[in-house]
Amino acid sequence: MIQKKLTKLVGLKKTDFDSFVQSGQIKLQQAKLIPTLKTGDEMALTSIFLSTVRLVKEYRDGIFKSIKLSRAGKAYYYTETSFPDVSSSRIDGLIIVVTKGIITDAVFFEMKNKNNGIDQKQVEDYLSISKSLKVNKLVTVSNEFVADSTHSPVKVKVPKNISLYHFSWTYLITKGRILLFKNDIRIQDDDQVEIMSEALHYFESSVSGISGFIQMKAGWKELSESIRAQKALKQSDEFIEEAVLSWYEEEKDMALLLSRKLGVLVKSSSKNKESVKKDIKKVINDNCITGELIIKNAVSDIKLMAEFERRIVSMSVKLTPPLDKGNKAKITWIGKQLENCKKKNDILFSKLEKELMIEADIKYAKANIKVKLSELDQLIDSTKDKEIQAFKITLNRGFGAGFASVKKFIVLIDNMVLEYYEGIVQYVSTWARPTPKIVQTETELINN
Q1: DSSP alpha helices (H): ranges in 345-398?
Q2: 204 and 225: one domain?
Q3: How far is the C-alpha of 375 from the C-alpha of 130, rounded, in Å?
Q4: Is-contact 151 249, C-beta < 8 A?
Q5: Element at 376 (helix H, strand E)
Q6: Taking a C-beta distance cutoff of 8 angstroms, is the pair 213, 188 a contact?
Q7: N or C, which terminus of the chain has less Cβ within 10 Å?
């Protein structure tokens, strides 16, 4: 009997796939929720993750949607997959989707934990295997953060028609945590809730090898100290790009931190290929870097700014005041918004109060008028003969020497965003123009 040659996965009959497994041309293991592997081993982590995807419908739907994997058909989950006739490499994970007996979609997974970063050569090897077997998706997972799932921690040339995704373990944990909140997307089946809870218990334990974003790159410290010392910066300085990428990662970290606290997925600002270049120029020209956190149903996006020279971090939200009122009434309105924050959480508000600035956005003006919260009444005179069209509530916090610290900066800014949201953002609201009402004419009133 002539042995068939393995030339593809997608498009292959499932019966032929099984035959290749029996002949040894495909080697693999079934993913198990309780693998007989050493605790903390990457393969154990891969097996538990893929089994959780298999067993928890809402988690599976979210992951499949994120990587554009077909949900039409039956999915099969494998670990330790290799194709000896194609490559000597062993791939950590594989999901195939079978419809009417044919493999219609598939994805490879490369998983890392602890301090192990995604390896460029491994990714290149797996992309080559993907191309050979017509698998158009490769997902890498590690403790490394990226601004967007379509970005990779390593620089590789991705073949045409193949999509390369990367997720941090923190992101995957956050996706699971959100499903345990009582919201519209929560897990419906009680048994699946228990499975998700147990999987997260393992992921979040110290033995799993999973950790959050705990350290900025060394370039962050070098950039901070260079600006502080007023050294000339060049676009070619590698440490500036390192600092910018660290900021993107921390922005993502803050978004996931808030997501776990709020039970909704908070997004960081979107990045593309030109974002790094633009932000490097901004750092060189303005000595600052900006970002934002997008929170569904919040009063506005939270704008972020880190100023390297002054070592200050700013966070702000924008509110629209009653546009059918005069400036004095608008200023009274914003004052009442902040009084409500104080009433809701007096202890936290008292801590933030001295760091708060109120900015009046003046129609047709090039710059906002800023005052400390304690000087809010001064806005009445400052905005005379002007029209206020919006307010910004800004929290400015000096980080001192902690700004340049690769570890302390993360602790300080994570703490700041939680305090700002809990003390201010969750309690303020924006004005909405009243719904127009039908006005009856005098004739209609007489006729009625």
Answers
A1: 346-352, 378-382
A2: no
A3: 62
A4: no
A5: none
A6: no
A7: N
Residues 257 and 338 in one domain: yes
Domain span at 191: 14-208
47 and 110 in a single domain? The answer is yes
246 lies in the same domain as 189: no
Which residue reads 């048994």 in tokens? Answer: 191
| Pair (342, 401) in one structural domain | yes
- The tokens of 153 are what? 């921690």
Along the 448 residues of the chain, how does pLDDT read in single tens digits? 446 899 999 999 999 999 999 999 999 999 999 998 888 899 999 999 999 999 999 999 999 999 999 999 999 999 999 999 999 999 999 999 999 999 999 999 999 999 999 999 999 999 999 999 999 999 999 999 999 999 999 999 999 999 999 999 999 999 999 999 987 789 999 999 999 999 999 999 999 999 999 999 999 999 999 999 999 999 999 999 999 999 999 999 999 999 999 999 999 998 887 999 999 999 999 999 999 999 999 999 999 999 999 999 999 999 999 999 999 999 999 999 999 999 999 999 999 999 999 999 999 999 999 999 999 999 999 999 999 999 999 999 999 999 999 999 999 999 999 999 999 999 999 998 888 888 776 666 677 6
102 and 224: one domain?
no
Q: Both 97 and 228 in a single domain?
A: no
Same domain, 29 and 127: yes
Nearest to 84 by CA among 20, 9, 12: 20
Instruction: Name the domain count of the chain.
Output: 2
* pTM, entire model: 0.89
